[in-house]
């Protein structure tokens, strides 16, 4: 087993917001670790293994950073390939009309610590079009390792900040 990596440097705003969000200690299976790259993908690719609830960011020297994730429940899960079109810190949340129809209690939320997208979001596009799926933080870290979302890939806030800092716009994302 590899040692967990240190947490990324947080801005004052990050530290203030994150102090307000519940912090669940992850099951060791879903903690952040540097591991051998077993994805078969070259360095610089994000791979989400949905059956394992794990996300890998492949790195040089056949290594990968592994993170635990929460995924879409069976009826809302998504698989395929995309690219990170853009990234945002403490993004605003604009739920799609289909989600509002299913759950009328949801509503648009400004960026900040109460936002369901958490500390960071990576916006996934296919062929120049928004998939409406994101890799993002969460204000429900206790759900990492489960299939509970409406399709997005949720990460602990400290982990999505780490991934956000590593990943450039244009990064290939494979969800399988």
TrEMBL record:
The active site is at residues 136, 152. InterPro entries: LD-transpeptidase, LD_TPept_cat_dom, Transpep_catalytic_dom. Gene3D superfamilies: L,D-transpeptidase catalytic domain-like. Keywords: Cell shape, Cell wall biogenesis/degradation, Glycosyltransferase, Hydrolase, Lipoprotein, Peptidoglycan synthesis, Transferase. The keyword Oxidoreductase does not apply. Pathway: Cell wall biogenesis; peptidoglycan biosynthesis. Residues 44-176 form the L,D-TPase catalytic domain. Belongs to the YkuD family. This is Lipoprotein-anchoring transpeptidase ErfK/SrfK. It comes from Labrys monachus. The lineage of its organism: Bacteria, Pseudomonadati, Pseudomonadota, Alphaproteobacteria, Hyphomicrobiales.
